[in-house]
Write a structure and sequence with these properties.
Layout (H helix, E strand, L loop, with lengths): L1 E6 L3 H10 L7 E7 L2 H10 L4 E5 L7 H11 L4 E6 L4 H9 L4 E4 L8 H12 L22 H11 L11 H12 L3 H18 L9 H6 L3 H20 L5 H16 L7 H8 L3 H12 L3 H19 L4 H7 L5 H12 L3 H13 L3
Parallel strand pairs: 1-2, 1-3, 3-4, 4-5
Length: about 350
Amino acid sequence: MIRALIVDDESLVRRGVRFMLPWEKFGISVDGEASNGEKALLYLEQNQVELLITDLTMPGMTGLELMEAVEKRFPRVAIVVLTCHRDFEYIQEAMRLGAIDYIVKTQLESQDLDELLERIVKRMGRVKVRELEATSSQIPLMEKPDESSKQDQLLQAWSSLQWVIVAGKHREIADRIAEFVLSWANRKAMLTSLHAVWVARLPWVAEYEGQARIHNASDWAELREWLKEFQLNVQTRLRNMLYSEDILSLILRSLDEIHRSAGQKITQATICSELHLSRSYFSRSFKDIVGTPFVSYVQFVNIRYAQYLLESTNYPVYVISDNVGFQDERYFSKVFKEKTGMLPTEYRISLRDSSSTPQ
């Protein structure tokens, strides 16, 4: 069972949320309640909690302040916020702090509670996009008690593509997967996930056979061979661009920063300052190596992040628009349709339709 804690300064709200939602149907056990942020933190210190449901506008420590504290001290706790219609400015900040969804307190009877809880549980089962964005492929793996946690660590450690320019690095990835991922099916799933992250980083790597080879592999030796070929193909193409290894590494590092900052304002000037490169040289080398201009690439990443938010939350389109860097919702919808072929609302409906289609 997923252990949950409800935090709200109003006891009637706590009871309503606790008893009106079919928690147990979705494997959630509401084990505790707290009337303020301080009591919530004390409860978290003394009890195992996987899901925190918190009000945003409490006296004393606010819900946002509680979220910041939980993010620092209990980073593996998922957070859902309780809110009213007028609180959408708080929702925007809650999203930035990592909230996975929200519950409208005044609409408990009218909301589709089954759909809401199903979405929350599904969201908790995923690795957050930003948890896959690591600044380096050298992040040490920590011991974890179960295989799924180890897989999360591997995804985080190898999401960056900087490893491809280091000869023979594919062997280290393969060895780590073999060491920490025991089942054959999970090893294939791990490489499938890694390949998807690498394609998101550098879209042209999709030209090299990936998903089909992984899917059709019959043993671990085949997957190791594919990984070796993948590195060689990408490495050869990068080196044929006639940039030094240092520049290649810096550009790949910039991709990590852009993905890690998805939804936040990031400029070419900021990146150039961090990398100690002139804007003109960075602009030219970025386009040559990545295959698209910097501004277009940032837009591509933000639209992907918007797709993720449309799928994994029920935030209104205008909230998502603001949180992926668009000040104008109509312009966001226009760009989203140009990139995906659908308006944001159509995209969200298509996801619901596909999830409800019998398999």
